[in-house]
Amino acid sequence: MKPLRIAIIGYGKIARDQHVPAIQANARFALAATVSSKPEPHPGIPSFGTHREMLAAMHDLDAVAICTPPSVRYDIGRDCLLAGKHVLLEKPPAATLGEVEELARVAAARDATLFTTWHAQHAAAVADAARLLAGQKIAAMKIAWREDVRKWHPGQQWIWEPGGFGVFDPGINALSIASHIVPGALFVRDAELLYPENRQTPIAARLNLASPIASGAIEVAFDWRHQAGEMWRIDIRTADGLELRLSEGGAKLTLDGDPVDASGSGEYQSIYNHFVDLIDERRSHVDIEPLRLAAEAFLLGRRTIVEPFVDRVQDV
Ligand code: NAP
């Protein structure tokens, strides 16, 4: 079978670290082009400065993976869908819920596949956690997502601009796991967002979530000021007394303290396998739940101003 010719639009950290290797390891895809604001060639394939230049020059593309910051995804995704390309969106899929809904409408009208990926949902142990929680009620749940922004986003300025999500850029990964494994609706009850006085997006956040299937608190803490390694952990106690802990961003799971062998294949390999299935079946997969929860936090959040954030690389 002829491989699907795919281009990566937004050739930054995640494109290079994960998308290129996952595409190269999947026989159903052939990497055909890259697009970046400052074009940086990938060996053996053309690179373009804008997606419009690429669409005008390459008529034989089948699909694109959009790995830009979220604020520019809508225009790019719309142009690509209108050109008949299948579209994979990195997380978060766009800056607003309305943009994602409109992209889904365009994809349906063009009979093209739209896939809003949430890579953390594909972490090795997440499907096992969902299976163990199916049909359960939640007695208590704690999400702790703490990392060092200087380590994980060195020099990135877009994360601090409106539409850049701030600490919700990693935090939305936790929300994507929670909305995937909790067998019932989730919504935000209240939130506190901590903004450095010189930035437009929060550096930390505390949320309280609620669910019709939860009798106790669902507490969420995101923090980018954490310097002692990373903590990407979700603890859940069910009404039946089961204790689940997902750690390492969903890669590891324990049940009542005992390790559970993870059955998943790994995040980006699983994402591209699913993209192939969706294209073959001419289906879309559009999941807005994590973005809805983040939007609710921004709607309801009390704003607390904290000390300025100084980025070692850019500001000193
Ligand atoms: P990044 O390193 O800043 O890369 C973004 C790239 O997009 C840059 O090369 C940027 O070029 C390019 N770009 C910006 N606007 C563009 C446009 N209109 N057309 C074409 N290219 C454009 O950011 P990243 O860390 O890879 O993150 C990108 C997305 O992936 C984010 O939504 C993030 O949440 C997600 N993600 C990141 C990670 C991670 O570990 N970094 C993990 C999972 C998911 P310029 O720099 O020249 O503007």
UniProtKB/TrEMBL annotation:
It comes from the Bacteria. SUPFAM superfamilies: NAD(P)-binding Rossmann-fold domains. Keywords: Oxidoreductase. Residues 4-115 form the Gfo/Idh/MocA-like oxidoreductase N-terminal domain. Belongs to the Gfo/Idh/MocA family. This is Gfo/Idh/MocA family oxidoreductase.
